[in-house]
Amino acid sequence: LVIVLDFGGQYNQLVARRVRECNVYCEIYSYKTDIEKIKAMNPKGIILTGGPNSCYEADSPTYSKELFELGVPVLGLCYGAQLMMHVLGGKVERADVREYGKTEVLIDKTQSKIFADVSPKTVCWMSHFDYISQVAPGFEISSHTKDCPCASAENEEKKLYAIQFHPEVLHTQEGTKMLYNFVRGVCQCSGDWRMDSFVEESIKAIREKVGDGKVLCALSGGVDSSVAAVMLSKAIGKQLTCVFVDHGLLRKNEGDEVEAVFGPDGPYDLNFIRVNAQERYYSKLAGVKEPEQKRKIIGEEFIRVFEEEAKKIGAVDFLVQGTIYPDVVESGLGGESAVIKSHHNVGGLPDCVDFKEIIEPLRDLFKDEVRKAGLEMGIPEYLVYRQPFPGPGLGIRIIGEVTAEKVKMVQDADAIYREEIANAGLDKTIGQYFAALTNMRSVGVMGDERTYDYAIALRAVNTVDFMTAEAAEIPYEVLSKVMSRIINEVRGVNRVMYDLTSKPPGTIEFE
Ligand code: XMP
């Protein structure tokens, strides 16, 4: 185990992901975690993340000196590096020049364990306004840049390493190698954290835990709940019942696709219940325009429907949730940068079902690891690489009132958009993309007729963590083809626009 101590940096989850890519298991903990708890976990290494503060200010996050005296290798990154120096008697000050972006780093100590096989001049990602003006006693500078005399420093004997730049960010060209050198070289982690053994062990553990109990799963067809369901199915077969609520706000054909995979004709051993609740949802949503109210209705109705099904099934022993590691960190349980996206959770679900315990088989995995686990278990690629789809579905991609006609329009437009993005080979490179129906109608001309129809907005964003995002640059020919197909093939639409807004100030979804 490697512990990543989170000081509130924006890249903390990336650090953990990179470490796991070295086949080393790691977990993120807040910098407030007690030293005794850290000792008890017996880590092979500790990584201190970046953070937004200045370590010399009074109320900034800090850690006691003891952390560096455990005999466990410590790697400090950015704020973590400065803190290490500050706590151990070095000096950190505000720099004259702020370094930001790709920067050439010159390695002074080429025999440093951290820089094994790294080129003597290497491009790294910098983002700092403070700098290490004097290293702590026992440390030597191992690299520098044009503006920064200490880009990294180390006390080889005590296995303490400080790096001012961000090896976890892919812009640092040889960053993964440096992290590998730390966890596999310095910490001597064996690198046996592998997806196939994780899957195998999880299935075994679930089987033991569940015994002959009954398990209920709310299946949305999204990646997380699908992978969780398959894992459970492999562990306990028909003791698992999956309830799939088709709320009529899914993408085109999605309900049938989910049924094809998880239903009785699919490859998995489980009980599958599909509830066709489209009409129910549309009538509840009739006349409702306000976004939050729509979200609330959709969420509440889901609970109602699920509750009714659960009642038919009767008491169960376990309820499955597709919680993944970023959810755990974001809900404030793991790391420090606690941003709670309350509307992203399926609120209140456990309350309405009679069960004893929750099973969260993916709780320790990042999204890309969930995908790997899915592929490992033979789940079809198109399902595993499905992009994120919000719980309220198309309900928040139709601005204003939702009607069956509008759902059809946005479904058809979205299907065309997705097809053309895939044809252009962009489907795995763009973070998230979809069509939305604006509530705007405008005048157009088609054939020789005047039209007064709706405008579709195309959205495509690139993002690391979905908290910030930038509009993706899609080649004009692709957009143009999508536009012409939508206008020709989707009735009721006479205009197509591309949304250029980043997040912030926009959000990814429209409501
Ligand atoms: P926003 O619109 O907040 O979206 O920028 C960020 C990411 O979260 C997804 N999203 C949701 N997911 N339930 C979900 O499960 C929701 O209510 C919800 N709202 C937004 C959105 O698709 C994007 O990936």
UniProtKB/TrEMBL annotation:
Ligand binding (ATP): 220-226
Biological or metabolic pathway of the protein: Purine metabolism; GMP biosynthesis; GMP from XMP (L-Gln route): step 1/1
Keyword Cytoplasm assigned: no
EC code: 6.3.5.2
General function of this protein: Catalyzes the synthesis of GMP from XMP.
Quaternary structure note: Homodimer.
The name this protein goes by in its record: GMP synthase [glutamine-hydrolyzing]
Organism: Eubacterium ventriosum
Primary gene name: guaA
